[in-house]
Amino acid sequence: MFCVRWLFLAVFVLGTASRVVLGAGLGDAAGPVSLVDAEGAKVVIDGFGERPGTVFFFLSARSDAVAKTIAAVDRLYDKHRRLGVLYVGVCSNNVESADELRDFAQKRGLRFAVYRDPAAQVARQWDIRTVPAAVLVDRGGKIAHCGGLESEGLQLALDAAIVNRNARQDDSASLRPTPIDHPGPQRTQPDLYGSPAFSSELVFERIPGAVAFHCSTITETPRGDLFCLWYGGSYESADDQTLFLARRPKRSRIWQPPQAMLRDAEHPPGNGVIFVDAKKRVWIVWCRMETPRPRQRGTGWENCQLMYRISADDGQTWTADQKLLGDSSLRAVPRNPPLRLSNGNLMLAAEAYTPEQSGSAFLIGADSGVHWTMGGFVTGGSQPALVERSDGSFFALLREKPRLMKTTSHDGGHSWSKAVPSAIPNPDAGITMTRLSNGHLILVFNDSETKRTPLSVARSLDEGSTWEAPMNLESNPGEYSYPCVIQTADGRIHVSYTFRRYAIKHVEFNEDWIVHTERPD
For residue 71, what are the contacts with CB-CB under 8 A and spacing of at least 6? Predict the structure, then answer.
């Protein structure tokens, strides 16, 4: 059977009549769809019941009609993804290579997977003869729409088918005057205005084969180098999502070219964290996406396995990859590096999912991570930023819109208070926090309830009870998000963060930069 013709689909595009693409029978079973990925591996799509609809967008990198339709397709995709609809790009010819299609998809900003159909088997299966065209398969696995997309009317038809601050000194005590002839011994004067230091740079500008980058973390290696880790690919949750690592040697201002550390088309790496344990070993802990592909852009985070690898030689070589929690059913996504505790243990706070609930889990790694166990679990927020207070208790802020949530633990992280709203705004975006060597806390966050700009830095002098007015790292339009903050051995503060999804940016400053905004002249 063939698709019935839509009566209103005979329209003109740029003065040329648009021929409606005849498709397989409406209401007929679509059957399993077999495609080929960039590596030549077969991808079979047949789990249609997991979502309200699946749209197969037939395209070509060499088609003017497709090129002129991309903006409209992107609008449709952006609307339909909120409904849970999966888009899949299909190229049904044997002349366009995977590299050509990747280049097209990245430069055109496609946010869904594009696979090849080199023998045009899928196209023949549905009688697709021209591009752009779309086939909608409903939750029942049946064809609900089949037609072209080169005009507004055809796009509307597809849409219709889918939518059925400083601490004060105590000056209360009177001061004794100093005699003129007995001024006392010479003393070192405090620098009331400090000496602010600040520098910034992109860790990289371009990485071949990847265009979108996110979720960085940063650490100082035992030798004094800086490591920055993040993921990137065609888009979030793409098959080609890769963990990248860059090194900035000690006393250098230049980052070395990023290296691809982990890539697995079937189970891509997601959020990763990099840190050093008490034994001076460098760790990478990341979440491996277990959701079958193709995945809708930005999905799959609720089904991630925590993995790790270790380097005992400053990142020159690494151990084999292993599961952090063995065969545990916990699914988790790390965001901030773990705390290194005075007893040698590690505490990793992560966004977590169990069969019963979702929220934040606090994992405890005994003896520098030799054995990991579950600590407490908190609902009402995710992706905790964690510090240890001077009394040995723990304080965490959790991502949640429109205000960050806060919670505390007084038993080593095994139980936590109910998460309650703080006064700090949050647009549902990642945050980071660290305790400086002098006890002050530094928080980096988006100071907004709705946008991932500005990206701001705030300081607390009372272990998180109150916060000073923030300073902005970024305030231009765009996304500046998912920061990671550390203090290095020289006392400098380092922050890495997502820069408009185009790159990762690194900023280095001292505490004076936060405190001293103007010097008397």
Answer: none
Amino acid at 431: I
Tell me, what amino acid is at 17?
Answer: A
User: What is the full DSSP assignment across 351-383?
Assistant: EEE-SS-EEEEEEEEHHHHTEEEEEEEE-S-EE
Cβ pair 353, 377 in contact under 8 A: no
- Residue 179 neighbours by CB distance under 10 Å: 8
In sequence order, which residues have a C-beta less than 8 Å from that of residue 381 and are 6 or more positions away?
359, 360, 398, 399, 400, 404, 405, 407, 419
Split at pLDDT 50, 70, 90, the class of 24 is low
Side-chain-side CA neighbours of residue 57 (13 Å)? 28
165: confidence class by pLDDT, cuts 50, 70, 90: very low
Token couple for 36 = 């080929």
Number of residues assigned to the chain: 521
Give the phi and the psi of residue 513 in degrees, each rounded to 5: -65, -35
Alpha-carbon distance 119 to 130, whole Å?
15
The CATH number of 7-162, from 3.30.70.1130, 1.10.510.10, 3.30.429.10, 3.40.30.10, is 3.40.30.10
Cis geometry, peptide bond prior to residue 483 (ω within 30 degrees of 0):
no
With H, G, I as helix, E, B as strand and everything else as coil, classify residue 209: coil
Q: Give φ, ψ of 213 to 5 degrees.
A: -135, 150
Sheet containing strand 403-409, strands side by side: 382-388, 394-399, 403-409, 420-425
Q: Using CA atoms, how far apart are residues 395 and 351, in angstroms rounded to an integer?
A: 16
Looking at residue 4, its pLDDT comes to: 31
Sketch the domain layout of the chain as residue ranges.
Answer: 7-162, 198-515
CB 150 within 8 A of CB 128: no
Closest residue by Cα to residue 148 from 33, 68, 36, 51 = 68
- For 191, list phi and psi in degrees, rounded to 5: -85, 100
Q: In what order do the strands lie in the sheet with 242-248?
A: 212-220, 226-233, 242-248, 259-263
- Residue range 77-106, pLDDT digits in tens: 999 998 999 999 999 999 999 999 999 999
Q: Per the confidence metrics, is the pTM higher than 0.85?
A: yes
CATH class of domain segment(s) 198-515 = mainly beta
Angle in degrees, 0-180, between the axes of helices 64-81 and 152-162, rounded to the nearest 10 = 30
Place of tokens 């609930």: 357
